[in-house]
Amino acid sequence: HPSRHVTRGVNLGGWLITEAWMNHSLFAGTGAADEFSLGARLGAEEAARRLSRHRETWITREDLMAIKAAGLESVRLPLGYWVLDVEGLERRPRGPFSGARAWMEEAPPFVGPCEHHVRDALDWAAEIGLSVNLCLHGAPGGQSGHDATGLSDGQWQPCMWDRQLTVRCLAHMARVFGRHPALAAVTVINEPSRSIPTSDLAAFYVDAYAAIREHSDATVVMPVYQRSWWWLQTYGQFPPPHFQNVA
Fold first, then answer.
1. Is 51 in contact with 111 (CB distance < 8 Å)?
2. DSSP reduced 3-state for 246
3. Read out DSSP for 8-26?
4. End-to-end CA distance of the chain
5. Is residue 1 scored above 70 in pLDDT?
6. Is 183 strand, coil or helix?
7. 86: phi then psi, degrees, rounded to nearest 5
8. 3 exposed, middle or buried (CB, 10 Å; 0-12, 13-18, 19+)?
């Protein structure tokens, strides 16, 4: 459409949520498949040291300057929920811890919080002239068993995803960062598993929207992943008529 503006951007992957395929040097020699098991392999102290160094150096202001110089306008910043400084947040998987998941109960938690890096990214972006899409890439309990959530878990079940705590995390993001001049969008979840009932996903999107709108007018991005938009529409009136500025 001639009146539609196309925003060209790039992903700041591997920074505030790590993945072995992307962060080769960080994971080298550990045998870890994801960020949570990296902590288990290294131990709490060494994991904190390595991840602190990684977070300080993986993305810098100079990287955002190079992005701007390349002619791009926006960046997507994926993050794990453990990055956030939410009161009472437990930075570990949900049970049950038995069988193949038994090791998780005694493993060190995810290393966090470190949300000052989010603030840095937003401040740099504002100075340089980039917009930012904050993406909750790894949700409490995991929105799937994929390593992109921070934990590769073949025993994951939809009931392990903590929807209420995910909404709390989004409310925190909106309260702390929602009025920042560089913030263009908040993506409420990344790649939710197809095994999550569509009714649950639609209900989550309604709650997530409300939580964000209390603090921010930024675009709310609701991924339709491995399912069609029609599936969501079959569960009542979706999107609700009060939704504004959603994607």
1. yes
2. strand
3. -EEE-TTSBS-BTTT-HHH
4. 16
5. no
6. strand
7. -100, 130
8. exposed
Sheet holding 74-80, edge to edge: 9-11, 74-80, 131-138, 183-187, 219-221
Over the stretch 207-219, which tens digit does the pLDDT of each residue have?
999 999 999 999 9
Taking the mean position of all CA atoms in its chain, how far away is CA 33? 18
Q: What are phi and psi of 19, to 5 degrees?
A: -135, 135
DSSP 218-232: SEEE----SS-HHHH
pLDDT tens digits for range 219-233: 999 998 888 777 777
- HSE (side-chain half, CA atoms, 13 Å) at 208: 28
Alpha-carbon separation of residue 71 from 49, 76, 228 (angstroms): 35, 15, 33
187 phi and psi angles, rounded to 5 deg = -90, 120
Q: Token digits for 127?
A: 């100075």
Note the pLDDT of residue 24: 96
What DSSP element (H or E) covers 98? none
Alpha-carbon Rg for the chain, nearest whole angstrom, is: 18
Write out the two tokens for 144.
Answer: 């799937």
Whether the Cβ atoms of residue 189 and residue 204 lie closer than 8 Å to each other: yes
Virtual CA dihedral for 8, 137, 125, 110, nearest 10 degrees? Answer: -150
CB 144 within 8 A of CB 87: no
Whole-angstrom distance, CA of residue 29 vs CA of residue 138: 24
167-177 burial code (b ≥16 CB/10 A, e <16):
bbbbbbbbebb
Band (236; pLDDT cuts 50, 70, 90) = low
DSSP bridge partners of 11: 76
Q: How confident is the model at residue 194 (pLDDT cuts 50, 70, 90)?
A: very high
In this prediction, residue 129 carries a pLDDT of 98
